From TrEMBL:
Major location category of this protein: membrane
One Pfam family it belongs to: Snf7
Statement: the UniProt record of this protein carries the keyword Protein transport: yes
Protein source organism: Orbilia brochopaga
The protein's name in its UniProt record: Vacuolar protein sorting-associated protein 20
Amino acid sequence: MGQANSSRKITAQDRAILDMKVQRDKLKAYRKRIQVVLDREHEIAKECLRNGQKDKALLALKKRKYQEQLLDKTDGQLQTLEQLTSTVEFALIQKDVLYGLQQGNTVLKQIEKEMSLERAEEIMGESEAAVARQQEISDLISRNMSNEDQDAVEEEYEALVREAAAEQRRKQGLPAEQPVPLMPNAPDTELASPEEEDAEEAAKEARAKARARERKEQLLAA
């Protein structure tokens, strides 16, 4: 009985499960290590904003969002692979699982490259080589980020602008401005009218379209 168990042949399914677990362990370790880089990129964005460098501040935020996106996407793929590798129909989907694991290893290598404070600091450089590297990063992110993620970055940037303005007012001894209400000029005791809601939605849509046009122009110019 014991000899039968010890001589059990390792199957492709066993190897796939092991590879998936190794990838998951790596991802967990990488997520902890890259947090230092993500925090630094947030600080870089704030520094660039204080220096009036909007493009660099946005690039730092985009790079940070892109890295978070890589982590979350890989985590989601590993969850899917974990389910597939444990199914009894593994033989029917073996090629798909192995391809997914290969892709996972490729993305993990990308994440590993991002875990460097030196690479984060590249955004601050002013030399010709640094500017070229910044453009390379911008092009990479533009190709791999969804419109929704780009919009989220724009909103994060606007939040940093408001935070910086509030900090400046505090330094000047002025009261911090009240947070802007979701519906402009709406009394606290009343709901916004349908007209105001339509106007706000139209403004959001216009801003999203403007950002989409800007991204399209950047891609065409690249």
